[in-house]
Amino acid sequence: MSADGSRRFAANVHGWLLVLPAAALLVLFTHYPTVATFLRSFFSTAKGARGSAFVGVDNYRQMIDDPIFWQVLSNNAYFALGTIPVSIGLALLMAIWVNGRIAGKGWLRLAYFTPTVLPMIAVANIWLFFYTPQYGLFEQVLSAFGVPAHNFLGSKDTVLTCLIIVAIWKEAGFFMIFYLAALQQMSPNLAEAAAIEGASRWHFFRRVTFPLLMPTTLFVLVNAIINSFRLVDHVVVMTRGGPDNASSLLLYYIYEVGFRYWDSAYAAALTMVLLALLALFAVGQFLFMDRKVHYR
Questions:
Q1: Cβ-contact 60, 41 below 8 angstroms
Q2: Strand, coil or helix: 150
Q3: Measured between alpha carbons, how far is residue 108 from residues 94, 96, 176, 201 in Å?
Q4: What is the pLDDT of residues 26-62, one digit of tens each?
Q5: How many C-beta neighbours within 10 Å does residue 138 have?
Q6: What CATH fold (topology level) applies to the domain 59-293?
Q7: Rg for the chain, CA atoms, rounded
């Protein structure tokens, strides 16, 4: 081997050794559990003296015949449609506002970002107080206007909407940070040139600002979809999936099946469906938005 070849080989080995700790952790805590869960979904759950046995796709057949699974999937779809566009749109509006020349914008940024740093359990307990029948903040305000008392978290018609409001309040500030960082990277010459040409603020936003924000929008959208399918803390604290599974989401249902009913095999099959949905959404976003992300 030549001297140049030896140096290149040593550099490659050195690079792989630097990557090895992170790669080992990734395989150990991400890839291996995924493969193990996939294999587990084709076996039955061991109960007592009866060991686990290979059952093929029986767990997936059970899922198709499970009405609670379809209700939970429908709840999660409604939850995603309610949280994703509103939280992203609100984050963009807040970022544009606090990026401008306004008094006290530092405090505004802090106020918008504060819900993000609060623990999920703390947020759930705060909003649980807001929604408490008769004594909650919302009940006190509505009663002042003569509106009759209503159990927001105890009604099938309003419980999921209440969770959507909490999720938007928690996530909008987090997404705002990414939009704010992207806006601060944009050259001020673009706005000056548009002003010279007589372009309105709306035209400048639609033709220049928003297209330049598309990479950030794609990143935020992927995270928003993942967040909408991994919410479980708020459900555990505020509703426990009730009433009558009206607020049960897919990840919470997996938690219930696996740790309340101890059916680990069926929980593994549900987990694979969740992973498949997230992968499908992610790939679809990159394929559909790839031509719109890179602005020329």
A1: yes
A2: coil
A3: 9, 12, 12, 22
A4: 999 988 988 999 999 999 888 877 778 888 899 999 9
A5: 17
A6: MetI-like fold (1.10.3720)
A7: 24
- Average pLDDT of the chain, as a whole number: 86
190/135 Cα distance (integer angstroms): 52
- Provide the pLDDT confidence category of residue 7 given band limits of 50, 70 and 90: confident
Q: Give the count of alpha carbons within 13 A of 199, CB side only.
A: 17
Number of H helices, E strands in the chain: 15, 0
Q: What residues contact 143, with CB distance under 8 A and at least 6 apart?
A: 149
**pTM: predicted TM-score of the whole model, two decimal places:** 0.85
Nearest-angstrom CA–CA distance, 137 and 25? 45
- DSSP one-letter string for 59-123: HHHHHHT-HHHHHHHHHHHHHHHHHHHHHHHHHHHHHHHHHSS-TTHHHHHHHHHHHHHS-HHHH
b/e 178-215 (16+ beta carbons within 10 angstroms → b): bbbebbeeeeeeeeeebeeeebeeeebbeebbebbbbb
Angstrom distances, CA of residue 224 to CA of 49, 123, 174, 217, 219: 44, 18, 10, 10, 9
Give the span between the Cα atoms of 7 and 226, in whole angstroms.
43
